[in-house]
Description:
The complex is a heterodimer of chains A (about 200) and B (about 350). Chain A has about 200 residues and is an alpha+beta fold. Chain A has three domains: about 1-50, no CATH class; about 50-115, Herpes Virus-1; about 120-190. Chain A has four helices and seven strands. In chain A, the strands form three sheets. A two-stranded antiparallel sheet of chain A has the order 1-2. In chain A, strands 3-4 form a two-stranded antiparallel ribbon. A two-stranded antiparallel sheet of chain A has the order 5-6. In chain A, a hairpin with a 2-residue loop joins strand 5 and strand 6. In chain A, helix 2 (about 120-130) packs parallel to helix 4 (about 165-195). Chain B has helices at about 65-90, 100-125, 145-165, 170-180, 205-225, 230-255, 260-290, 305-340, and strands at about 5-10, 15, 25-30, 35-40, 45-50, 60-65, 125-130, 135-140. In chain B, the strands form two sheets. In chain B, strands 1, 2, 3, 4 and 5 form a five-stranded antiparallel beta sheet that branches. Chain B has a three-stranded antiparallel beta sheet with strand order 6-7-8.
Amino acid sequence: MSPSPPVQCPACQVALTDGVFNQPDLRPCPRCGAELQIEVFPALFRPLATGANAETVMVEGESTCFYHPTKKAVQPCAACGRFLCALCDCELHGEHYCPTCLEVGRKKGRIRSLQNQRTLYDSIALSLAIFPLIIFYLTIITAPMTLYVCFRYWNAPRSIIHRTKVRYVIAIVLASLQLAGWAVGAYFVISTLTANG
Amino acid sequence: MAEKEYQRLTWPRMRRTGLVTAFATRSSLWLGSDHLLCLDSTGYTEEYKRFYFRDIQAVVLRRTGRQRILNFIFGGGALFFTFLTLAVAGPPGTWDSNELPGAIVLLSGAAFFGALALVNTLKGPGCTCDLRTAVQTERLPSLNRLGRARRVLNRLRPLIEEAQGRLAPEELATQLASSTVSDVPPVIARHRGAPAPVPPRLYSGNAHLILSWVLLADVPLSAAYILLYSQWLELMGVLLLLGTAACVIVALIKQHNSTLPPALKRLPWLVLGWTALLVMAAIAYGVYLVLNDPSAVDRDVSPLEDPVLLVMTMVSALVSAILGLVGLKLVREARKTMNPPQIAPREAAPGA
């Protein structure tokens, strides 16, 4: 069990003591005088848990860890079912996983609470549809790109916060109008050239 | 309709990730069922940090001078445009129909800065907010006002207490008295993608020295511009302004993570602010002149013929001189600190 480091003043980094914690208003830092309001919670005084040690197999025929054949198995992985020793057992919201399944789950987005990054394809599509309008000639390239992004990533995970598909819809409408504009322009050019000669 | 997983706690605010941020990261806070979500978005990607209520150890608010500084800047801008209006068009009762459009443009500048100052005042004092867990301390940029931070804290407190239990004042005192705290500082979490912390560079301030000399060069040029007005001198003035801007950019880049004293690091920012204000005033005055007399576009006006232009040129030269001299002094002091004079060892006395 390792002790928690002290709460420090964000201005002068001095370790703070009682008198500034859980006060209703700002209190000066005893060293630098910075006005602080610090709210502390019981977790501050909870000792940090140390990692469990895996037990070596003593009895022949006892279940062993998939990754460490000499260590005693304590849990099966909730995803792949492999037996895990205390060292390989990773608990997440009451479920037990092996490190490989955790990594795969994080990469493939199967474990939602492990996701820490997402690309917003709907915003990319909308930008592709709107910004090139400043220089309209660019839209001959960007309009098909917009449609590609929209249809390719229509079902891709969007932002983790609530977000609708309205950006995709607007992007598709704008890109379609741009392509229609090019088609009409091309039709007029061709018909003019044909009429002239 | 399915219930939303997250409720918005704060609107996005800029997270400082460096001197120049091509795609500025904006950070917002969202309330989940058992955790606080800090969402950093570039507009095209999002990064998530989850702080579970059971793991939050402390929330540290520190009052900053943000409100005061912004009020000083916005108030200064409002006053500057008000004085410019009075200097150019005279008191409000004396405006004729020719002066009215230009005066309105200048007063709009004053009103804009005044509105910013008012909004800034209404938002309340500025603060920083750090959220601490056992393994990290995370800055929450969206809680940069004390009132907002307290409102969010009041909303989080019951949820954290529900997950961890309540810490009574006497229990806190007992825990603080009995707890063994280590001297190891907590790990400071950095924004993902930000470079690893590097020690400050030793930098002698050459760019700041050049910037100071460029500022001082504005004094003789302004004098020549006033006394010997010509288009060439006007062109040189524009080139000097561009040169100043370039020097400011170089100085800002060079001083980043360097050992220069904070006072010297403020110089490029001051020059940048002053230059921006001067350019805005010049544009506003130009618009005013053109609105009053459209033929002024093609006419060259010497500072001696136009009292407003004369005052602006003189004030610009005076401020440049002050900034330049202060810059030279600060660079000299910084170099002395970096290279303290070596005391020659005293020669041993003969026979000693």
